[in-house]
Amino acid sequence: MDIAQLNEDLLNLVEKKQELSGLTYSDEEYDDVEEALHDMEDDFVENYGDYLEDALHAVHDEYCPDDDVLLPTAYLVNKYVFQETDGNLQVDAAPGEGVFVMCDDYPNKACRLVLLPNPTRIVLKIGSKERVTAWTAE
Description:
alpha+beta; two-stranded antiparallel sheet
């Protein structure tokens, strides 16, 4: 698996999702951006789906075994937070974003799983502030 290419493709997908989330249905570009996003998602699942689904199964088995594993693109969110630190782009999911899961270790907290780039990783968001990197691409 080419981890660098995976990360680059994931980052491009995240940026396209961010672009779409900034448009309204009435924008002339909306349909074209949405179609491009769907094509990118299809290519992403075709190229990396098996690899990421294996990772998602492992994460689900460890943290939320009662929840179904979804397609990797389901773990992408609509709104991201981008921050440049020392020349490195840090990417996180905006508050309240992610796939809701029931975590045995955190029964009284809202937990969400997200797939993020830089590096490619699956993050478990616990409540509003706590984060656990549940998996990192290697």
